Every structure is written in C-alpha cells, then in structure tokens.
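tool_call: predict_structure(chain=1)
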Amino acid sequence: MFKQNIQCPNCNKAITILLDINNQTFNSIIRKCELCFKSIEIDYYFEDNEIKTLSYNSKK
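tool_result:
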C-alpha cells in the first residue's frame, strides 16, 4: 500500500488515502473521505515505485 495526500473534492480538507501498488496498471477506485464521508473516485497509475498519474473527483 502507498500513502498519498490529496485534497477532498467534496469538503476541500487535506486527507491521506491508501493506494494498492501491487498492480502495475491503471487503477480506478472509490474511497470515502475520512472527514466528510463522501465518496471520491480516484484514478491512478503506479509504475517503477512512483505514481505516474493521479486524478480524483467527487463521486456522483
């Protein structure tokens, strides 16, 4: 698992999310904000021990 700091797109607070880095492909996951409990859709690609792309939005 990889810790990543982001800003919740719902409440605009800084939070830490855990990303599964075992799969070296494009990943799309849903996580709940630990502060406002609203869903966040997170897309990321992990390769060579670093996040190559990361995007996140409010889950409608």
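agent: DSSP finds no helices and five strands in the chain. Proceeding to next step.
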